[in-house]
Amino acid sequence: MQRLSLLRSIIGILFFFSMLGVIVGLPLILIVLIFPTKVPFNFNGYLLNADKMEIVFLSAVIYAAHCAFTYGLYLLKKTLALFSKRIFFDQKVIFYLGRTGKSFLISGLLWIVPLFFCYLPADNRVKTNTDADGFAIPIFHLAIGLFFTVLSEVFLMAKKMKEENELTI
């Protein structure tokens, strides 16, 4: 359980800094909406020469992806709190794991939109890379989301098996 407390601490710190992004992100989108020419929009090393609505759209999609990621961290934090109380095969744990997976999946899918939107017009060719600034982040979010979704299903099956074993005794 020592590793669980370390994981809870790391997720708590990550959630705190992620919440700072949620709190600061919305006013930044409003600033871009009001003063679009004053704020240069640099996305993964590409300085975009887009109109006001495109930049606001990209900012809103990135903000929504970050909010989905933060919500996933929040649910993971709640799940780890239940684990620390030694509650494993509860309906809440299964629900939280499933929702965590779905929120990470949504975050990954939303992150793909600005990547395609920015990389295609930048040099008029389709390219993929797996650098930290490329498609690695959305793919990681998708993989983690699928992992938590599968983990939720595994916990549901284990809960049913546990209930069946208790009935036969």
Automatic annotation (TrEMBL):
Name the source's superkingdom: Bacteria
Q: What is this protein called?
A: DUF2975 domain-containing protein
Q: Which organism is it from?
A: Flavobacterium cyanobacteriorum
Alphabetical UniProt keywords: Membrane, Transmembrane, Transmembrane helix
Transmembrane regions:
12-35, 55-76, 104-122, 134-156
